[in-house]
Every structure is written in C-alpha cells, then in structure tokens.
Amino acid sequence: MRVSVILPAAGLGTRMGRAASPEKSGVSRKQFMLLDSSPILLHTIRKFQQAPSVSEIVVALRAEDLGWVGELVAAERFAKPVRLVEGGESRQHSVENALAALDAATELVAVHDAVRPFIDVPTIEAVVEEAARTGAAIVGIVPVDTVKNVKKNVIRQTLPREHLVLAQTPQVFQHALLKEAFDKAREENFTGTDEASLVERLDKVEVTVVTGSDRNIKITKPTDMDLARLFLEQETTPARA
Predict the structure, then answer these.
(1) Quick one: average pLDDT of 199-228?
(2) Going by fewer Cβ within 10 Å, which terminus of the chain is more open, N or C?
(3) Parallel, antiparallel, or unpaired: how do β-strands 56-61 and 38-39 relate?
(4) How far apart are CA 158 and CA 164, in angstroms?
C-alpha cells in the first residue's frame, strides 16, 4: 500500500525566535524554530521516516524556502523520499498543491501539522490502518476540561465531554476521496479548519477517530517550546533500568 504524507509548512506563523536559516535570521516561523539544533520541521519528518507504512513525505513550503530547506533535507540522507513543493497562502492551498504533486498510485494520504514533532510511530501506524479500513480517520483526544458553548460571554450550553474530541493530526484519507473533497471546497469557495472538515462535507464516508496523546502538541506559542524541549529530552534520554 502506497501512503504519502503531506506536511504543510508554508505558514508565516508568529515571531517566536530565530529561524534555522542564516539568511532568514530574524524571521520567526515556528516550523523552522530550532529544537536541539534542528528545525522542528526536520524532527517531524524524522518521525514519519520511522513509520513502516509511510512511502514518501511531501513538504509544502513557501517558494523562497525551497532552496535552503532542500539542502537541510539532503544533508539528512533520509531513507525514504522527501519531496518539496511550493505551497500557498493558506494551509488548505498548500495541501491542495501537495495533493496535485502525488503519484496517481498513491492509495492513502496522511496530512500532518509540520509543528507536531512528537507524534509517535504506533499512532501513525494505527491511524493509517484505520483509514485503510474505513476510508477516513483522524487522531484525536477527549478534552479534560469542561467545554461551554457561549454567546457574547454568556454560557448557553455545557457540552458533554464524552461526545467531544479535540482533533489532532495525522488525518488520513483515501487519495481519491481527499482529492474530491478539495475539488468541492475549491468549487464552492469553502475553507475548512482541517482536512476532515472538507471530507465530512462529501457525506460519503464516516470519519473515524484514533485515540491520540496529549504529548502530540502543536507548537504555536513561545511557552510550547519549553514543553517541546522537555519532551525531546525524555525521548532521547535512555530509560534507567
């Protein structure tokens, strides 16, 4: 089974620190923030390189980043192909561009946030296996906090947590199904919050959920880097007998 992973990494993000590229110093985009001397993007790619089910990784980048990121990727000498394509001004546009670059023989497509470097291989394999069975599956976790539905700062409803899921990535879909979902969204000028929201609109399959982990954080703000350093230290420090 051919499984392609798309990592949208063309976002501008916020100013969180120095970027990995010397010529980009002063430009702060979270996917290029350094974590133990490597950009977060590379940490994420490494995880999918370790996943047995993954055939290739396609990274969508801004045009000005293709060159220097290509050099970083080449220096890693990855065992599985890592291809770089030009992304767009939005995540949805970037994923759509990457989709257009996939081989027609691709059976499943996994889309993953480039700034979620702590996804673990067993979860990758589980969600790929689930999508192979159902056609569409995402990673998600049940919220631990009580969730309120509000309007103008007034609570309208308390939502039962057992019916709620916080969506994470990877989100994995049959190739043809995901392409159809993106085609429909483009035709109807619809912008979704994630890939599953586009597939749900087709009303062709039920998107199932594989339990994720609260370690699968999305690095979006400066304080997330502190937690990321802790998680990385725990991953790289051998367990004591």
Answers:
(1) 95
(2) C
(3) unpaired
(4) 11
- CA separation for the pair 211, 227 (Å, rounded): 21
Tokens of 215: 């370690």
- Using only C-alpha atoms, the chain has a radius of gyration, in whole angstroms, of 18
Q: Rounded CA gap, 112 and 110, in Å?
A: 6
Q: pLDDT tens for residues 135-178?
A: 999 999 999 999 999 999 999 999 998 899 999 999 999 999 99
Residue 125 and residue 177: Cα distance in Å, rounded?
20
Residue 239: per-residue pLDDT? 61
Its pTM stands at: 0.92
Which CATH number do you get for residue 103?
Answer: 3.90.550.10
Pick from 120, 129, 138, 128: nearest CA to 47: 120
pLDDT digits (tens, 9 = 90+) for 82-137: 999 999 999 999 999 999 999 999 999 999 999 999 999 999 999 999 999 999 99
Residue with tokens 């991953």: 235
Q: Which helix (H) or strand (E) holds 3?
A: strand 3-8
Domain count, the chain: 1
| DSSP strand pairing (147-151 vs 154-159) | antiparallel
- Please tell me the number of Cα atoms within 13 Å of 135 on its side-chain side: 14
The reply to whether 241 falls in a domain is no
Largest CA-CA distance found in the chain, in angstroms, rounded: 58
Name the residue range of residue 163's domain.
3-236
